[in-house]
Amino acid sequence: MELETPYALGGTYYVETVSVGKRTDDETVRDCVVCGGHVYADDWHLVVGVLDTGSGRQRHHHCSDDCLTEWLKLMTAA
Ligand SMILES: [Zn+2]
Question: What DSSP element (H or E) covers 74?
Answer without folding.
Answer: helix 65-77
